[in-house]
Design a protein that fits this description.
- The protein has helices spanning about 1-35, 55-60, 65-95, 100-110, 115-125, 135-140, 155-165, 165-180, 185-190, 195-205, 210-225, 230-235, 245-255, 260-285, and strands spanning about 40, 50, 290, 295.
- The chain is an all-alpha fold.
- The chain has one domain (about 55-295): Orthogonal Bundle (MetI-like fold), CATH 1.10.3720.10.
- It has a two-stranded antiparallel sheet.
- Helix 13 (about 245-255) runs antiparallel to helix 14.
- The two termini are about 40 Å apart.
Length: about 300
């Protein structure tokens, strides 16, 4: 039996070995290295020079850093509620007994499968102030469309509108949550004279509240990591209006070769995401309802 257990253990380590090596080389080591580099002046070519908290002190006096924080926070506060609301709205519609439900479900989800770069190039044409689709449609109503990505006031709004293109992914997750709500609850509500609006507010929302929490946290994390749109479409935008945090991090790391400075930005981003995630989880204890009761 001991020999048999040793043989099983040997095969276990053989099969898990490639994953362990990959995790150490491509995950654990970069995390540890970036933590060290964040306290150094490092430009890849020369050896790291220890400067302590110098990078962090410089960040708090960096004007562009604070502009990137402002653009990212504005994007998060505006895009997440709209995306969640639209995804839930379409999920509720498709959850009804309507013809061609499968077709509409697929049509809504397909745009989420398009790569970020391809989607950004497509929306560059859509937002083109001269030959773009949106301004062309506005001209039907004798409205002169804005310059969108070339206008400081409209560039961020354009990126937010573009983000709605992928609400189909969130819709599918909400749809799965809606289909898990017991029909007996709605039948009891109908017997008690509850209308659709009251049933939605007192049955649907509480029952899918864990799904809403999941979507909120994932949307928040994704909004902190917006990069492709800024890189492909605006390059930081007019007057830094779309200088998102991760795009500025990328510029420091690979354009300005300030790897230590970028590592400090990465660790600040990690801490901020952890803080907001824990904050949302703590605030959700009385709002999220699980099968075993309220809260975690």
């Amino acid at each position: 039996m001991k020999r048999k257990r040793n043989k099983k253990a040997k095969y276990f380590y053989i099969f898990i070995g490639p994953w362990l090596i990959g995790a150490i080389l491509f995950a654990l080591y970069p995390i540890i290295a970036s933590a060290y580099y964040s306290f150094t002046e490092y430009n890849i070519v020369n050896s790291p020079k220890w400067i302590g908290l110098g990078n962090y002190e410089e960040l708090f006096h960096d004007k562009i850093f604070w502009l990137s924080v402002k653009a990212t926070v504005k994007y998060m506060l505006l895009s997440i509620p709209i995306q969640l609301g639209l995804a839930l709205f379409f999920a509720v519609l498709i959850n009804q007994k309507i013809p061609f439900k499968g077709f509409f479900r697929t049509a809504m989800y397909v745009p989420s499968m398009v790569s970020g770069a391809a989607m950004s190039l497509m929306w560059l044409w859509v937002f083109n102030p001269k030959v773009g689709l949106i301004n062309y449609m506005l001209s039907w109503f004798c409205v002169d469309g804005p310059s969108w990505l070339f206008d400081e006031k409209w560039a961020l709004i354009g990126i937010i509108i573009m983000s709605l293109w992928t609400v189909g992914g969130g819709m599918i997750i909400f749809l799965a949550g809606l289909q898990g709500v017991p029909q007996s609850l709605y039948e009891a509500s109908d017997i008690d004279g509850g209308g659709r609006l009251r049933s939605f507010w007192h049955i649907t929302l509480p029952m899918i509240s864990p799904v809403i929490l999941f979507q909120l946290i994932m949307g928040m994390i994704e909004s902190f990591q917006v990069f492709t749109q800024a890189y492909v479409m605006t390059q930081g935008g007019p007057n830094y209006s779309t200088m998102f945090y991760v795009y500025y991090l990328y510029q420091n790391a690979f354009t300005n070769s300030r790897m230590g400075y970028a590592s400090a930005m990465a660790w600040i981003l990690l801490l901020v995401i952890m803080f907001f995630t824990l904050l949302v989880m703590r605030m959700s204890k009385k709002l999220v309802h699980y099968e075993g009761g309220d809260g975690a």
